[in-house]
Design goal:
- With 171 residues, the chain is α+β, with helices and mostly antiparallel strands.
- It folds into two domains: 66 residues, Irregular (MYOD Basic-Helix-Loop-Helix Domain, subunit B); 87 residues, Alpha-Beta Plaits (2-Layer Sandwich).
- 46% of the residues lie in helices and 21% in strands.
- Helix 1 runs parallel beside helix 2.
- One of its GO terms (cellular component) is RNA polymerase II transcription regulator complex.
- It comes from Ziziphus jujuba var. spinosa.
- Keywords: Coiled coil, DNA-binding, Nucleus, Transcription, Transcription regulation.
């Protein structure tokens, strides 16, 4: 009986790790029903593609820096990106019995990502049970941490949830 329990626990942990891996992949990479090995191969391809992009951008940045002798400082103006909330990051990761969402936004006061919209998406649209919610402001960055219970982590598309949450910016 102990072997069966340990095997079940191992499989649950592997399912959580696989869900975490899938959440980091672009949505077009995980469409349809795919095996764990397909997800791992997609992750390897995605990492290699990102490395290539980083190398290309580094070369481009170095060229721009070398061609520019003048320091470039842009005057502070209210651009369209400042009028919207600046959701710097939305991280969704599985934890035992559910998911944890950490949202950090550094927008203008009053333009931060509204917690009510986040909770609306989680509770009303996704049908999740929010068990913990905490918010704090540090160095001008508002950080929301929300934990929600999930019966079956495989029924939730974490990348789709991340996209829904990123649409919560005020007008």
């Amino acid at each position: 009986m102990m072997h069966r329990d340990s095997e079940r626990q191992r499989r649950q942990q592997m399912a959580l790790l696989n869900a975490s891996l899938r959440s980091q992949l672009p949505s077009e990479s995980i469409k349809g029903k795919r095996s764990v090995s397909d997800h791992i191969n997609e992750a390897v391809n995605h990492i290699n593609n990102m490395k290539n992009k980083i190398e290309q951008l580094t070369v481009k940045k170095d060229k721009l820096e070398s061609s520019s002798n003048v320091s470039t400082s842009t005057p502070k103006s209210e651009s369209s990106s400042e009028k919207q909330c600046l959701a710097n990051s939305i991280v969704i990761r599985p934890f035992w019995g559910g998911i944890e969402i950490v949202i950090s936004s550094g927008g203008l006061r009053g333009k931060d990502l509204p917690l009510s919209c986040v909770l609306e998406v989680l509770v009303l649209e996704e049908g999740l049970n929010v068990v913990r919610c905490a918010s704090t402001r540090a160095n001008g960055t508002l950080i929301h941490t929300v934990q929600a219970e999930v019966d079956d982590i495989n029924r939730i598309d974490l990348s789709e949830l991340q996209q829904k949450l990123s649409m919560c910016c005020p007008d």
